[in-house]
Amino acid sequence: MKNLFDNLPEDLPEELVETILENKNIRLERIVSTGQKSPDNFWYDQEESEWVLLLKGEAGILFEDEEHPIHLKPGDHINIPAHKKHRVEWTSQNEPTIWLALFYRD
């Protein structure tokens, strides 16, 4: 048995992405951010849909067709359809932000 809150690094140069479960239809990842955000002018445009649950910390996700980012707090979740362009505007600087991301194909 493992715990999603174990082995949290204090400071990371890049987000930590760990695959928890994967098969031909889904991929489940734990992502740990410590203040990281998407590079300037970068947009995710993914082949898969992504359901994201924020477990700890806070983050802002901006969709290309929106003016303001969505502010996620612990317990908030969002479904991002495939090819919906989005970016991470910010993550908590004072504590690790822990995401659970489920990637799937329709």
Describe this structure in words.
- By secondary structure, the protein is mainly beta.
- The protein is 0% helix and 46% strand.
- The protein has one domain: Sandwich (Jelly Rolls).
- It has no helices and eight strands.
Index terms:
106 residues, mainly beta, Jelly Rolls, five-stranded antiparallel beta sheet, 8 strands, globular
The structural class is: mainly beta
Strand content: over 45%
Quickly count the helices.
Answer: 0
| CATH architecture descriptor text | Sandwich
- String of helices and strands: EEEEEEEE
Instruction: State the oligomer.
Output: single chain
Secondary structure: number of strands: 8
The strand order across the widest sheet is 1-2-8-3-6
Spatial extent as radius of gyration: 13 Å
- How many domains, in number, for the residues? 1
| Low-confidence segments | none
CATH superfamily: Jelly Rolls
CATH class: Mainly Beta
Distance between the termini: 30 Å
Give the biggest sheet: 5 strands, antiparallel
Fraction of helical residues: under 10%
Principal-axis shape: globular
Per CATH, what is the topology? Jelly Rolls
Mean pLDDT equals 95
